[in-house]
Design goal:
With about 450 residues, the protein is an alpha+beta fold. It is about 70% helix and about 10% strand. It has 3 domains: about 170 residues; about 130 residues, no CATH class; about 120 residues, no CATH class. It has 15 helices and 6 strands. Strands 1, 2, 3, 4, 5 and 6 form a 6-stranded mixed sheet that branches. β3 and β4 form a beta hairpin. It is rod-shaped and about 125 Å long.
Length: about 450
């Protein structure tokens, strides 16, 4: 048995509210996965995004009031979907990087072979030279290009005397000889292509920029890379390549940060939508939608934070109302007198006093902060002249009622947990005004406010 207590209230309604917010975030993550999968042509990601089997299992957990397990598994599913979205983007970026490398290889080999054909006998291989020129300016790697390059390799003989050749042509001749000596599948031309790691890294970076949704930046960077691939080796080219590597890496990092911020913003919007519409939520969500349409790191961060704050306030207000309602309804079930103004009085004054119809001199005081998450509950007396034995009996009676109130909330998938408590009789009963006196005073105050407003 215990006297005055500090207790923590959890209601079924607020647990459902939390789970519904998480389900909304999961739905947003699935929509984002589907959008990327469709945009990038990833059938595996699209199939996963369309599946509702896992969501059905999670909804069933909520229906069974298994809230702890539901919250844990929904959060895990959100993480899983987000990781699959990342995989979709990485698969597309890897495929795009391969395509860029193939294009670069074909264009570089075509340019190299064309120079050698034109040096040796331009008239003898006019048709082949025309094909190489077309490859050197193509925008996409093709199978036909591979065939033309293989023919060009075959047309060039490495046995030409090297005594009169320049260093560049001697190097080319050595490359041709090495390539033709290993040509078993018609792809020896690939040995002529550059293997500079910086260029390979740049190709992967450009692919990521394109996949992450900035095709304009990708085109600009690619033009610079194309020009550098044709530029002669030397310190100037190396400096330009190093600078481009830094710029592309910075652009990729920026786009990835934006992607994370947009994902967080969409999740916040989904959670706000699950709470319904309020004027405060409507205002901040409109600002966040505008920030998503024209993404900027600072603006997105601020707008997402504002929505998260508004969601927290709205959820706290609904949870507080649900807690007050659950406590008052439970006490009414136990025989305490409850009227429609008590919830309002509790909010206005931070406390409410109740009594049973058959007890005129004792009652119960419930006090809390506005969120009603933690309550101070205690038996109270309406007169300072009551005998100690009567006060002790009232405190013991309230302990029994409190236990029954706990059972009621637990049956409704809620909880009323004691965090701190004093023993019965440890302190004198607090003396307060009776509920009737408090209600009369509150009515007078409300009337005065109405008259002043007129």
């Amino acid at each position: 048995m215990s006297g005055p207590k500090v207790v923590r209230v959890v209601t079924r309604e607020e647990r459902i509210e939390i789970c519904e917010g998480l389900l909304a975030q999961l739905a947003a993550a699935s929509r984002a996965l589907k959008a990327d999968a469709v945009r990038l042509g990833d059938s595996e990601g699209e199939k996963l995004a369309r599946s509702t089997a896992r969501r059905d299992v999670l909804v069933e957990l909520i229906k069974q009031d298994n809230f702890d397990q539901a919250e844990t598994q929904i959060r895990q599913e959100i993480g899983f979907i987000s990781s699959k979205r990342h995989e979709v983007v990485e698969r597309a970026a890897s495929a795009a990087a391969v395509a860029l490398r193939q294009l670069s290889s074909q264009r570089h080999a075509a340019t190299t072979l064309l120079k050698e054909l034109e040096r040796r006998a331009p008239e003898a291989h006019a048709e082949l030279a025309a094909g190489l020129r077309q490859i050197a300016s193509q925008s996409k790697a093709t199978k036909i290009a591979e065939s033309v390059l293989a023919k060009a390799m075959a047309a060039l003989s490495p046995t030409e005397s090297k005594s009169h050749l320049s260093d560049e042509h001697k190097a080319l001749a050595r490359s041709l000889q090495a390539a033709q000596g290993t040509d078993v599948d018609g792809k020896s031309w690939q040995l002529l292509t550059t293997q500079d790691k910086r260029i390979l890294d740049l190709q992967h970076g450009l692919a990521q920029i394109d996949v992450l949704g900035s095709s304009g930046a990708m085109t600009t960077f690619k033009k610079r890379l194309d020009a550098l691939e044709l530029e002669a080796e030397g310190p100037v080219r190396n400096m330009k390549l190093d600078a481009l590597v830094i710029e592309v890496s910075s652009a990729v990092d920026h786009l990835r940060r934006l992607g994370v911020l947009v994902e967080s913003a969409q999740s916040a919007l989904a959670e706000a939508g699950a709470l319904g519409t309020t004027s405060e939520l409507a205002s901040v969500t409109q600002e966040l939608l505008a920030a998503i349409d024209d993404p900027d790191e600072t603006r997105l961060t601020k707008a997402t934070s504002e929505v998260a704050k508004a969601v927290g306030l709205a959820r706290a207000a609904k949870a507080a109302a649900a807690r007050r309602e659950a406590i008052l309804a439970g006490l009414e079930t136990l025989g305490y007198q409850v009227n429609e103004n008590m919830a309002t009085s509790w909010v206005d004054e931070g406390r409410v006093v109740l009594k049973k119809a058959d007890t005129d001199m004792h009652g119960v005081e419930i006090a809390s902060a506005p969120d009603a998450q933690r309550l101070q509950v205690r038996a109270v007396a309406f007169s300072a002249a009551l005998p100690d034995a009567a006060n002790l009996a009232a405190e013991n009676a309230w302990c029994g009622d409190f236990g029954r109130l706990q059972e009621l909330l637990q049956k409704q998938a809620g909880d009323l947990a004691i965090e701190r408590a004093l023993p019965v009789g440890a302190v004198p009963l607090k003396v307060v005004q009776s509920p009737a006196t408090v209600q009369a005073r509150s009515a007078t105050v409300r009337t005065r406010k109405v008259n002043q407003a007129r």
